[in-house]
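Sample 3 of the quickstart, ligand iron/sulfur cluster:
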Amino acid sequence: MITASEHASRIRGAPPIAGPGGLPRLLPGSFAGRPLGLAGHLARHGELPAAEGQDARACATGWLAEIERAGLTGRGGAAFPTARKLAAVAAAAGRPVVVVNGTEGEPASAKDKVLMATEPHLVIDGAVLAACITGATEVIIVAGPAVTGIVEEAIAERRALRRDPVPVRVVPAADRFVAGEASAVVNWLANGRPVPTPVPPRLAQHGLHGRPTLVQNAETLAHVALIVRHGAAWFRTAGTPAEPGSMLVTVIGAVRAPGVREVGIGTPVSTVLDAAGGPAQRLRALLIGGYFGTWVPWPEAADLPFSAAGLAPLRAVPAAGLVAALPAAACGLAETARVARYLADESAGQCGPCVFGLDAIATELGRVAAGRPASLALLRRWLSQVDGRGACRHPDGAVRFIRSGLELFGPELDLHARGWCSGTTDDPVLPVPRRLTR
Ligand SMILES: Cc1cc2nc3c(=O)[nH]c(=O)nc-3n(C[C@H](O)[C@H](O)[C@H](O)COP(=O)(O)O)c2cc1C
Ligand code: SF4
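Result:
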């Protein structure tokens, strides 16, 4: 049985990571545009502590306790405590499976793709550790098609060295917004239909082919790999006491160096923008948290901590870490309407309020943005009728995003109704896949 001090000494054996709070933790500081192979990965992070033979269960229990002490929460959007998910799958009857959710269906987000393209071994380490903790007999990585080959190569490198105690394979993700929802990922693997299950299942008990299934975001698992190496106390040297650790943020829009950056949770919003070169133009607003997220005013948001608690006054959450900077020259209503149409078209087509409600809302909002006759009262009524009425969070997320747009860009509504718009450019800020643009 491994003792606490043995565990601590194994943790101390891992090489330290430079920088305040150990940042950057997940992404190499100097990204050469190539994935870090196994040798580079081990040189940067050190070996994982061993968990073999009779020690294996005790090690796994120690790791689970360490992840709980670290306070790690999911980086896929909902910020659910990771240790609780791991414990639920470990306690379930049957042969568990670990599914790495690297789908990243959100068109504006790139953090999981960049992570897997850069540090595939860190994600695989975390997934294999999750398998040890839950007793899973298999790891399936669902990765964006653009990075599937990189992950495949990393798996082959490990397989040749017989590194992993369980089989690991990669499956290309489906290219749909809702495809990353946990039950949609399981359905994609089970029957090739990347849609959420109408009655939300308890995946921890009955997931893929009825097996206990852990669906965990790729970034979350990379943090698991570092917590097991360096310990909970180290993990907590970044972030806030209530929301510890770092997170990957995709910064897009009117910044000088858009891209994926790693920040401690609670970093001021202005510093997050500075990490991407700072504003490239005068800004009007930020979209925080993605296409289920919230428009917040700029510069009012600048000094707020980038954390759930810090953004609460503006009713925003970091979610999966998108920050989109809207320049003053762009029309916030037009951006909101374009993404609303995209979200409506991305409904999985199973729940009436989601299918018909989002479509009607997007059409009406499109009229508002184009300055055509429209009823705001009707729009607001439909928003309240759709909210909370789907099997998954898709309609709620869309409603949250649209409401925040109507609220923040409310003063523009009158202008638009009179055929005016304060925006001076038609260049879109928020990306929407071309095939779906109407
Ligand atoms: C419509 C929708 C899309 C989602 N897309 C993703 C995604 O692309 N990647 C992801 O990790 N989680 C996504 N999620 C969240 C997952 O359902 C799930 O909470 C997450 O994968 C769990 O991992 P975590 O606990 O590590 O965050 C989505 C949720 C919804 C409702
Ligand atoms: S709420 Fe929408 S996206 Fe979610 S399962 Fe129902 S139809 Fe599909």
